[in-house]
Amino acid sequence: METAKITGERISQYLEQGKRFDGRGPLDFREIEIETGISKRAEGSARVKIGKTEVIVGVKMDVVEPYPDSADRGNLIVSAELLPLSSGRFESGPPKFPAIEIGRLTDRAIRESKFIQMEKLCIKEGEKVWAVYIDIYSLNDDGNLIDAAELGAIAALKTSRMPKYDEETGKVVYGEFTDKKIPVQKEIPITITAHKIGNSWIVDPTLEEEDVSEARVTIGATPEGVISSIQKGEPGEIDIVEFENLVDFTEKVRKKVFSSIENSLK
Amino acid sequence: MTTKTFKRPDGRKQDEIRKMHAKVGVVPNADGSAMFSFGDTVAIAAVYGPRKMHPQHSQNPEKGTLRCNYSMLSFSVAERARPGPNRRSTEISKITEWALEPVVMIKKYPNMVVDVHINILQANASTRCAGINAAALALAHAGIPMKELVSSVSIGKLDKNLVVDLIKEEEDYEEGEGSTDIPITLTNSGKITHLQLDGKITGKELKEVLKLAKKANREIYEAQKKALKESIKLN
Questions:
Q1: Which terminal residue of chain A has fewer beta carbons within 10 Å of its beta carbon, N or C?
Q2: How far from A236 is each of A13, A21, A214, A219, CA to CA, in Å?
């Protein structure tokens, strides 16, 4: 916790009047910028900025033996790394819990919504399937890496082209791409993470706000309102009624976020 | 619940929890310990502490630290699980900490740590819920001041049917809308300290889920309370 207590108290007092330091309302996102195709080597890639927060996401693919419990479908492997260059708080070394959680939250939002049509990524049942690797890196942490990471993953997947596969050798010809896209659904899962500060709920926190957040809830759902993943984080308690309101207001926020980024996902 | 006639693989009613068993004091070495089971899913938890946090730079002078560690024994599942931590167990450990911390008066122990070790002896789904229930009991048994207990249960949505306390076979349900797994932890006064969801659900159905969880957790709370009372009688 590196935000001073006095700042935290002020954030909380401001929110009582519905105000935030940067002038946003409690349920306003910062400006979202999405740029796809930022890497020539990756099958798909994206850079997402939410305010000063920035992540890059790359998709790579490989042909592997399927897992025994999903012999006729492709694999999804999502990982996140919080680069030391992106914040004075991150250290090098094996991933710590925050990085693991971002990877898992993104993984579940995509997997549970069945956004990738995994059954179409089977080459030969029980022998060869495509594996989709989504790797997320933070470039600047100013809060809300969770939502930025998931948006980046979706944008990268939407714009991925499959690499060339040599049927004779059974190997991927790296560096050569086909025109085929990764098969994905039309409905896009988007995570919205709400944070509780004092008695108020906000979305898209800055780093300072994230530091003083007492509880958070990440909901992955389509703009149409079908929920596929939820995770509550941090030790704060939440009333059941409070939780139900949260499901409703995040749905509205998601619709707004979706309409602001819809064009950049095409 | 949409259909009243939904048949569960083990013949339970939709809102029926598996046979629960709760017992405290299962690890004599520990400062507090407990076992909690939902049918075949068996968790034990042991509490060590409060004791001084080491290394010193990890100490928090403002409040104590609650540190949970969830782990599955290699032979607790059909296919041997690799021993040691993985991404799943790391996340469940953290989730368990968050589920318990609101009721544990950890603020009273600056510079100290309370360790909660949870091991799954045998798994048939809902292991994190069994683990949290055992951990809450172990903390109470250790005499750590708590505001109240927490109770945890998994609610499932199989196609469109809501059921309580999922088993593995139900987790793998594939018909219709498939299986949605929603582990929920509530305090005895009904506040959410933990909630996860994987699957497919609408906001409206989610409200039903919370109602079911509240009812189920009241039953679990009674089982926990009974176990704690029994332990006092014995001494």
A1: C
A2: 18, 23, 5, 17
The verdict on a CB contact (< 8 Å) between B198 and A228 is yes
* Rg of chain B taking only CA atoms, in angstroms: 18
**B116 in Cβ contact with B74 (< 8 Å):** no
Question: Alpha helix (H) ranges present in chain B?
Answer: 87-100, 127-141, 168-171, 203-234
Composition of chain B by helix, strand, coil, percent to 5: 35, 35, 35
Helix (H) or strand (E) holding B152: strand B150-158
pLDDT tens across the length of chain A (266 residues):
588 999 999 999 999 999 999 999 999 999 999 999 999 889 999 999 999 999 999 999 999 999 998 999 999 999 999 998 899 899 888 889 999 999 999 999 999 999 999 999 999 999 999 999 999 999 999 999 999 999 999 999 999 999 999 999 988 998 899 999 999 999 999 999 999 999 999 999 999 999 999 999 999 999 999 999 999 999 999 999 999 999 999 999 999 999 999 998 87
> Nearest residue on chain A to B206, judged by CA atoms?
A244
Contact by Cβ (8 Å): B105, B147: yes
Residue A244 has φ and ψ, to the nearest 5°, of: -65, -40
Report how far apart, in Å, the C-alpha atoms of B145 and of each of A29, B27, B72 are.
40, 20, 28
Residues of B in contact with A76 (CB under 8 A): none
Among residues B176, B175, B177, B195, the alpha carbon closest in space to that of B185 is found at B195
User: Hey, what amino acid is at A95?
Assistant: P
Task: Please tell me whether residue B41 adopts helix, strand or coil conformation.
Answer: strand
Are A100 and B207 in contact (CB < 8 Å)?
no
Cα distance between residue A140 and residue A52, in whole Å? 7
DSSP letter string, A199-248: TEEEES--HHHHHT-SEEEEEEE-TTS-EEEEEEESS--B-HHHHHHHHH
Three-class SS of residue A124? Answer: strand
Per DSSP bridges, beta strands A44-50 and A53-64 are: antiparallel
Among B98, B197, B214, the residue with its CB nearest the CB of A227 is B197
